[in-house]
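User: I've been trying to design a sequence by hand for this structure and keep getting stuck. Would you show me what you'd pick, starting by listing the structure so we're on the same page?

Assistant: Good idea, let's start from the same input. This is the structure you sent:
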């Protein structure tokens, strides 16, 4: 809202969605009040962060305990290797953070693709935690949980087998928003910062900056604010031109609200 607070309690009728300026009927609607979150927390554990390990763990713990009781987290640390990752309830995840050790290089793109794959239920899961089970679909075919990737990194990719454009392709297919928390080189390096900002913008997420290690905790808190105001809105694409092309999406609500959403997709 105008004061920067998350807006909960909105209903389907509070939103209007347009594709290529043609208004669409909303067929999928999940609000923060009726659907828990599945979050892939993709945490940079490379050697460049070793001197800030305590602050990284503190910020991650604070983020996890700020989530709702039914929210689930897939914690995925990465350096030049990805994982191993683990599912748990957000409130129970802090005990796992102490197992993150900062060493090695940075396989950023591989980690993001892995995290999105887990949220899309194409990779391993651990049902004994009550998390990581296949997304249920109701009679309308709608999912029952909202999803997001929260990334914390301080540097550019060095060790991935995957490419940047492959990350965007997977994000486009899964429709999962990415929220990068930027620190260190990821904030100072203009090229890297723009790449991550583009990734966030094209997926319907947003970047948050931590100008110093001591601001990491507040940066994660800002992400929680956005997740608490996240709504899942969907529609059936209109019939028409069958040529593959970029389709532009516009979402509107009350004039005083600031909306962050995925602005286009390919079909």
């Amino acid at each position: 809202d105008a004061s920067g607070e998350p807006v909960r309690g909105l209903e389907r009728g509070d939103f209007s969605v347009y594709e290529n300026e043609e208004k669409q009927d909303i067929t999928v609607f999940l609000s923060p009040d009726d659907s828990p979150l599945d979050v892939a927390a993709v945490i940079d554990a490379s050697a460049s962060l070793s001197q800030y390990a305590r602050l990284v763990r503190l910020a991650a713990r604070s983020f996890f305990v700020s989530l709702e009781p039914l929210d689930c987290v897939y914690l995925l640390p990465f350096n030049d290797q990805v994982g191993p990752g683990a599912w748990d309830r957000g409130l129970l995840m802090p005990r796992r953070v102490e197992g993150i050790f900062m060493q090695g290089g940075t396989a950023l793109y591989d980690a993001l693709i892995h995290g999105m794959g887990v949220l899309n239920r194409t990779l391993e899961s651990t049902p004994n935690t009550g998390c990581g089970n296949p997304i249920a679909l109701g009679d309308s075919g709608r999912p029952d949980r909202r999803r997001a990737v929260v990334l914390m990194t301080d540097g550019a990719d060095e060790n991935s087998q995957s490419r940047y454009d492959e990350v965007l392709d997977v994000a486009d297919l899964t429709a999962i928003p990415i929220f990068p928390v930027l620190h260190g080189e990821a904030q100072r390096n203009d090229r890297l910062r723009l790449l991550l900002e583009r990734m966030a913008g094209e997926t319907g997420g947003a970047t948050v900056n931590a100008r110093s290690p001591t601001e990491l905790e507040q940066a994660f808190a800002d992400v929680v604010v956005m997740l608490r105001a996240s709504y899942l809105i969907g529609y059936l694409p209109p019939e028409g031109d069958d040529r593959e092309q970029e389709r532009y999406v516009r979402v509107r609500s009350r004039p005083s609200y600031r909306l962050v959403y995925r602005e286009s997709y390919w079909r």
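That's my pick for every position. To get oriented when you compare it with your attempt: The chain is about 25% helix and 25% strand. The helical segments are 53-65, 94-97, 108-119, 164-174, 185-188, 190-203, 216-228.
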